[in-house]
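Task: complex structure prediction.
Instruction: return structure tokens for all chains below.
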Amino acid sequence: MPRTIKLVLAYDGAAYVGWQRQSRGPSIQGLIEDALSRIEGDRVSLDGAGRTDAGVHAFGQVASARVTTAHDVVALKRALNAMLPADIRVVNLEDVADSFHARYSATGKTYDYWIWQGDVLPPLLRGSCWQIARVLDVEAMDAAARCLEGRHDFGSFQSARHDTKTSVRTIWSARVAAGAPLMARGTSPFAPPAGDAAGEAGGHGHPVVVRMEGDGFLRHMVRAVVGTLVEVGDHRRTADSIRGLLERPDRGEAGPTAPPRGLVLVGVHYGPSVAPDAGSR
Amino acid sequence: MPRTIKLVLAYDGAAYVGWQRQSRGPSIQGLIEDALSRIEGDRVSLDGAGRTDAGVHAFGQVASARVTTAHDVVALKRALNAMLPADIRVVNLEDVADSFHARYSATGKTYDYWIWQGDVLPPLLRGSCWQIARVLDVEAMDAAARCLEGRHDFGSFQSARHDTKTSVRTIWSARVAAGAPLMARGTSPFAPPAGDAAGEAGGHGHPVVVRMEGDGFLRHMVRAVVGTLVEVGDHRRTADSIRGLLERPDRGEAGPTAPPRGLVLVGVHYGPSVAPDAGSR
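Output:
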């Protein structure tokens, strides 16, 4: 019986040419399609919600595929994880309605971009942060990010290489905050060590997190936004200048594209329910 | 002129036999000593505040050395980072009084231990979390951890291979908390994505962080504590049973030693400012 499956995927993008299958090297889509095709005994094609670029990571990329295999979802997930390399994992796998399509059913996405502000990047974070030695004005960056919220033409933040008809998107939320030093303080729920140890424990750097949520993102959009926000953080442009970029879209006026390794596709949003409708099968 | 330098070091311990120089493979101490010796033109020996085990990470390990090189601290830090592999970084380097000794001057340390609770470990965290698929009772783990606070004989949590005279230590703070999904939510200062995306964004797992601060730690102590706390989280022992382990030290009665990759030496404390308030304990 043909069925539709939905996969939630997490990966470290460092070793890949990106999500999309390409001739120039290993892709995440390619490796998962190959594994799924071996199980299926026939060519399976996988639709991804977002085409993450080379070096970009995911915690919750979503993909869908039509398969006929009789394996249940638990066996299928286990088999895929056994075949895939350690830097790509199937976090969840479920049967969904045949109408579900990872890309077309998606109603939005959440991205995080991590910056390590400090002159030395802690090795444990070397694969997931853009390191900036300068002191950033995070408040100004946050004010600038908030200007992006709403329905706008984001043409100023779109890669020249794109294939979309419109560059209008709705950003639900765009915020920037300086985290306490990661591990040292950020992800730990406890207060920083007092006194001198605060210095040892991470006073030599801390993360700055940019989080964007919206109904869609143009090619390189988050990274172009981050490159522009960093110029605001450097006081090389004002927070208000973002409004001009939205009113008169011009990629040349915005900042550079931030490197891919700081970007994480956190999750993909869908409507109220994607569970298979019992009646429809 | 002979001088004493203090180095703050961050490293990914995965590739090393541990901090301490050993014949069986590359050590962090060994690599830094070798680099420093080449700059010095003579053998330099490095004293580390803590001897982290194979696979254990650091954000703020501290080491000290006596050198005669005329390079200033900025040049010295740059030269060392140019010579060291990417998974070992000198985060800070400063001149200190000759009386300073990274180990003997230390008044305490802060350690974090990260557990990923979920059946699939996100690849971006694969080097820094102990993955546990079972649902842990984090509240019980925290209650158990708090029993460790104060001055106790921690012999139940000490490796059989040790060379300390006494197993009495003072733990200033021992706490456990479930973080929101890391990256997905934990380190980001913002609310989780609403609705279904909360599931995609990390509902398939989340970190549990154990943080311990104290005046000293026995060999494998944090990892033995974590292995024991996980038994509490599994309801295989009660939170109160920790008191018995402190009253009647017996390594055989405590839980197993948790794997090294979840452990991070967050920072080393110096000076009086971080000592616990004598009056309050």
